[in-house]
Automatic annotation (TrEMBL), chains A, B:
InterPro entries with a match to the protein in the record: ATPase_NBD, ROK
Similarity section: Belongs to the ROK (NagC/XylR) family.
Organism ancestry: Bacteria, Bacillati, Bacillota, Erysipelotrichia, Erysipelotrichales
This protein's name: ROK family protein
Signal sequence range: none
Entry superkingdom: Bacteria
Length: 300, 300
């Protein structure tokens, strides 16, 4: 059976795995990224990690997921906030030349979305939209099992979509950007304002209060549901996907907000679009499995 | 040179043309649709119009643009508000079987977008987003010269995108839907409220007042610019196109609102997305030329 090398390069950790064409992880190694020691240090680390994989040279190709927008044609990061020095660095070429293997790079959310579209919750559909709602919010459009990355690798940068222009300015994102209103970070911020920092360490504490019937927490979760529904309705009207695959930690609160979210969403879309489904992400390691699927998708 | 039959089937008129592969219209015929006489009457009319085209049987295929979402695989309209009776009718099969020619159907906005992507303002780009701002607002995503029509043919139904949830309810669309806030119809409605029905026959009258320096008209046009900018920023974050191609009658007022629109838009998108261009639609007859390009695109 064919196998591929997947690399999940994050700001904190690097993981390298050998993955077969069915998405089974055969072997995985993990290390701290140590980006503070420089780009060449990280590249040497990735190379040595790949060399620790059994029979790495027999793999068909290498796929890498990285945090931030990517020029997938050039195999370079366009913006590398969490990996200083990697902006514009020819990472695909460096790794590919070393191993004489075809090497592909894409944004970590795109890679996870492609993994879900090929092997996970979207595997039976031609047009899949993957959304992760976690600390931040990201998305990926996958048409016929290939990511639509956009001209500058910014397709799916849905964090910055305005879901309500009448909000407060939070950071560099747009006023009312969905990430500032409906991410885990946003729910934590809003929860702390209501209940204090001692009560709310993370979004899960707001969900817990809602489950206990706290009316203010329930109102926050209803607002979260509505804001997320607006985001999904916007995406639906642009691409009309067969399925939204949803990942990310905020789904741990799905019992509190998801039913209302879906009801709100369905009230915002046309009758002919109601066949769209919501499915939870299924892959245990979408980042690493999805990365390994890059060569599978592009070498066909 | 290869040639194709294009059919532009509207609620008022039907146009049939022979178009060569460079997009030149070689011959065109036009008639009233007469939908009130029934579907079979309209189909017979289209067939007889095609038969009036010189050497129609030598064409490679037939492409049709229709008003409303289309199941492009089945070749049927999903919703046919302006063509009652055509919902679910196997129009592609009926026409194709009669002429023994491959026949394709798509939404009229998708067809125009594909025409612009193949032959018009988007011809040098891989990822094109076409928007028409007229009586209504519609869009089409064209990736590698093919339309992404969505699961139910509703991709690009951007009229219903919420650009500001704090507006009034106008019709069946969402509160704050861009078509109710920034289309020609919307500008006419808002202009009439300010200046009276006698002063404002259509959106052009608001633009004319703005050109004369009327401060209320200028404020309306500034609001229009901002609302359209929000819509474009939303689409940009979902698909990151290389170019937005814009058509439709509201562009007759571009001297009044477009510069501000683009400035507002560029303040709402990431630095890495700023290469996106705006171009005006170039084809004189995008509906009919785009329809004729359907067989060209799908028969490859």
């Amino acid at each position: 059976m064919k196998a591929y090398i997947g690399v999940d390069l994050g700001g904190t950790n690097v993981r390298v795995a050998k993955v077969d064409e069915n998405g089974t992880i055969l072997q995985m190694v993990k290390e701290a990224t140590e980006i503070e020691q420089g780009v060449e240090h990280v590249v040497a680390k990735i190379i040595s990690m790949i060399e620790r994989i059994d029979r790495y040279a027999d793999c068909e190709g290498i796929g890498m997921g990285v945090p931030g927008p990517v020029d997938t044609v050039q195999g370079k990061m366009v913006l590398a906030t969490n990996l200083p020095g990697f902006e514009g660095y020819p990472i695909a070429q460096k790794i590919g030349d070393h191993f004489h293997l075809p090497t592909f790079v894409d944004n970590d959310v795109n890679v996870a979305g492609m993994g879900e579209a090929i092997l996970g919750a979207g595997k039976d559909e031609e047009i899949v939209y993957y959304v992760t709602i976690s600390t931040g919010i990201g998305g990926a459009l996958v048409v016929d099992k290939k990511v639509v990355a956009g001209k500058n690798g910014h397709a799916g940068e849905i964090a910055n979509i305005i879901i309500d222009r009448n909000r407060e300015k939070v950071n560099y994102l747009n006023i009312g950007a969905v990430e500032n209103e409906a991410s885990g970070t946003a729910l934590t911020r809003k929860g702390r304002r209501l209940f204090g920092e001692d009560m709310i360490a993370h979004a899960g504490d707001v969900f817990a209060l809602a489950r206990q019937g706290n009316s203010e927490a329930l109102a926050l979760c209803d607002e979260l549901a509505y804001d997320i529904a607006v985001m999904f309705s916007i995406i639906a009207h642009v691409v009309d996907p067969a399925v939204f695959v949803i990942g990310g930690g905020v789904m741990k609160g799905k019992d509190v907000f998801f039913e209302k979210m879906e009801r709100d969403f369905r009230s915002m879309i046309h009758k002919g679009m109601q066949t769209v489904k919501f499915k939870e992400a299924q892959l245990e390691e979408p980042g690493i499995i999805g990365a390994a699927m890059l060569p599978k998708a592009y070498l066909k």
